[in-house]
Design goal:
The chain has about 120 residues and is α+β, with helices and mostly antiparallel strands. It has a single domain (about 5-110), classed as Alpha-Beta Plaits (2-Layer Sandwich), CATH 3.30.70. It has 4 helices and 4 strands. The protein has helices at about 15-30, 60-70, 70-80, 100-110; strands at about 5-10, 35-40, 55-60, 85-95. Helix 1 runs antiparallel to helix 3.
Length: about 120
């Protein structure tokens, strides 16, 4: 099942380390089947606030996403990011092709106390 590394980049301090990080990151996730799905694109805020930028990297599974995150290659460049970029990063598994949100809705309704 596809998984994603999602970064909500909120503040970037201009620095040569940021350019180095960006130039090196692709080679760190390619061995794990990763690829950029969103990078540097403009986004539209429809509700709430979402300052900054969004980065999404897709992986074949959550295992590959975790392996990339913990890899020596990524750990070697991570300080280039963390010293100069503020934001949040998550790894999250996607849903399968047979996912049906109505099943979740029905379970939520069944868990409610009788009215």
């Amino acid at each position: 099942m596809t998984a994603y590394a999602i970064a909500h980049v909120q503040e970037v301090t201009p620095h040569p380390e940021v350019a180095e990080y960006i130039s090196r990151i692709t080679k760190t996730f390619e061995p794990y089947g990763g690829r950029f799905l969103v990078h540097g694109a403009e986004h539209e805020v429809k509700e709430g606030a979402w300052p900054g930028q969004v980065v999404v990297i897709g992986f074949p599974s959550i295992a590959e996403a975790r392996a990339w995150w913990e890899s020596d290659a990524y750990r070697a460049i991570a300080p280039l990011r963390s010293r100069n970029i503020e934001g949040d990063i998550i790894l999250v598994p996607g849903v399968g092709e047979d996912y049906d949100a109505t099943v979740i809705a029905e379970a939520m309704l069944e868990a409610l106390p009788p009215q």
